[in-house]
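Crash report, auto-generated. Payload:
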Amino acid sequence: MGTFIHLCLMKDENHLNSKPTSYQEFANDNCHRLTDIQDNFKAIYSIDDYENWYYTQASEILRLYSDDKEIFFKYIPVGTYSKDSNTWLWAWSNKDSVEPRKLKTIKVKELGEQIGYEKLTTNHFEGDEYIGWELTSITFHQLGGIGTYRVVSDHLEKYFILTNEISKTEVEKIESNLIECESHGLMRTAFICQHLNNSNKTGFEEAFESHKGMELEEDVDFQALCDECEVQRPKTDGWNDESMNFAKIKLVCEGCYFVIKEFNVNTIHKA
Ligand SMILES: [Zn+2]
Ligand SMILES: [Zn+2]
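Recovered output after restart:
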């Protein structure tokens, strides 16, 4: 079940090392500035009328729905809070995430470096139950958007900045470019030669240096060849029937692509 509570409490600042403007003052100010925007957002979209939520990382789409209605938003992930370990993990450092816009949150890290707030610059740290809303408020004012949202599953809270509403037709168009992988769910596509796998090292030659969840231009896909294919292709001066036939390029999901990449790249350096 989704929850939607805007939780920004004024905390006692006597506990904090005082700075000209302490982190806590800064966070409270950001929270308060978000409150009106958030109330307005909830009213405009009747957010509280939706009982369920579902999100797709690869398309960064949040769907809110009830039996008789649904609404879709594009989102930017801010980070996650684990209630098990009481720790916050910034989206930019979440290696498991395939959300293409997660690195937008680097802007907050840069701000933190300028003004010296460790909570804005540390990838993963212990924090209290308010940290998620504090950091989401700060991020909202840096990146802009129409509102914020939080979903809770098991012990994990995940925070979003919603950038715009999107129609069902647009959602279908975006998601028609994704593939459904048995292991990874709905994901972006990637292209690899038939020889690449995660049981035998074959080398991993990429069209461009990649990382999981990176933002790609339209019409650009993750692509990789084994060493042998990389040798074959220039021999034939680019692709021809022979090299195409040798490579037999296949489609995999982004998740599988990075499993294979990690296997091939990391084992190279081992004894
Ligand atoms: Zn190959
Ligand atoms: Zn996969």
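Post-recovery validation: The chain has eight helices and 14 strands.
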